[in-house]
Design brief:
Layout: H1 9-34, E1 43-49, H2 50-53, H3 56-64, E2 69-77, E3 80-84, E4 87-90, E5 93-98, E6 106-111, E7 114-115, H4 119-131, E8 137-142, E9 146-148, H5 151-158, H6 161-164, E10 167-169, E11 173-175, H7 192-195, H8 201-206, H9 210-218
Region (Disordered): 216-238
Length: 238
């Protein structure tokens, strides 16, 4: 039984936020080292699921924003195991919020607090590259404090080679068991959604982080088209 199983939600959040800050510092150092010129700020596009957006996702965005240009996406994913033998997993994305893709080369940074399956992570990467058609990223730098030991190898098999070749992982604590809920068994049967108070699937589906709601409210509204005339409606006679 893992020590993490006994963590309170508060302690767990503090731990993963600290990990996000630490990994963001490493990404910043990597980007600075690889930069051809110190005149341009590194660019990062951070992608996180709604349950990770205000915890590890926020700590990564906050730390990277000190010396880099940071944009982000928030995804509402739904993991489901369809069959165990053979194992069939799906993770559709049914809501998404995206900043515009950075104008120049950047690092795509998927951020997750914990994974027991690579399927949600694969869905995140495929969604950004093939469905949203983000194309200017030069690396995919995964930030994840806890994952099962074979996650990097299995993710590589799940991705097209042109994407798999771009992937690198942060250091992570290997979890020996793959959780059937799509998260590591180190959470003791709980999920990151439950750890942040979004345990109910309906609540999670309709939850919008305050930062995203503010961004939505600031966006210009599309004007409604004029109503089409009713063909059965008679013109008034004066």
């Amino acid at each position: 039984m893992s020590a993490a199983e006994y963590e309170t939600s508060h302690d767990w959040v503090i731990r993963i936020e600290a990990a996000g800050t630490r990994f963001a510092e490493q990404l910043e150092l990597k980007a600075t080292t690889q930069s051809q010129s110190g005149r341009t700020r590194p660019r990062f596009h951070v992608v996180s699921t709604v349950e990770d957006f205000d915890t590890i996702g926020r700590s990564v965005r906050k730390r990277l924003s000190v010396k880099s240009d940071v944009t982000y996406s928030c995804l509402w994913t739904q993991y489901e195991t369809l069959n165990l033998d053979p194992l069939i997993e799906i993770s559709p994305i049914f809501r998404a919020f995206h900043d515009k893709e950075p104008a120049g080369p950047y690092s795509l940074v998927p951020v997750l607090s914990d994974i027991g399956s690579v399927v949600p992570l694969r869905a995140m990467i495929i969604h950004m590259a093939m469905e949203e058609r983000f194309s200017r990223f030069r690396s995919i730098d995964i930030v994840c404090p806890t994952a099962f030991a074979d996650a990097p190898a299995l993710l590589r098999k799940e991705l097209p080679s042109n994407l798999a070749d771009l992937v690198s992982w942060s250091d992570f604590v290997p979890n020996p068991h793959i959780g059937l809920s799509g998260y590591g068994s180190n959470l003791g049967g709980r999920t990151p959604s439950e750890m942040v108070g979004l345990g109910n699937l309906i609540e999670r589906e309709y939850h919008t982080p305050s930062e995203i709601q503010r961004r939505i409210d600031l966006r210009p509204r599309r004007p409604r088209p004029p109503r089409s005339p009713n063909p059965d409606q008679k013109k008034p006679v004066f």
